[in-house]
Amino acid sequence: MRRHQSKRGTSLALVGSTLALTLGAIAAHAQDSVPASEAEGTQRWFVELVGAPIADGASSASVRNEKAAFRKAAAAAGIAFQERKAYDTLFNGFSVSVDGANRVKLQQLAGVKAVYPVEIVAAPNPEVNAISPDLV
Question: CB under 8 Å to 18, separation ≥6 — which residues?
């Protein structure tokens, strides 16, 4: 059981690190959405909600309620989007597929902190001989 928890913790850490690096590379300030001109043509977006994630002390109930309120507000506003993934622990928000006009509407919903384009970040390819014998 300890081994399973360790793998799960490592997986969560990798997901969190990847998400943090992606978001950090995209925007210098978490409060600022990325201008559409910087992500022209993409239809996949991270939608960050204003509430804190569970890792920052929010209860799972409050995070769930905030997501439910977002979904309800988007439906009431007639905003068409496809929810791809919901995030609770390290990031409070979603990844969605949405066209440009509806993305702008999503950004304007109450409870939305920021919207960031989803980008693919390639992992570096380390050199085979990069490890010095002194470091082994």
Answer: 121
pTM for the complete prediction? Answer: 0.64
Give the chain's residues under pLDDT 50.
1-5, 10-15, 17-18, 21-23, 25-31
Residue indicated by tokens 């978001």:
23
Q: How many CA atoms lie within 13 A of 10 on its CB side?
A: 6
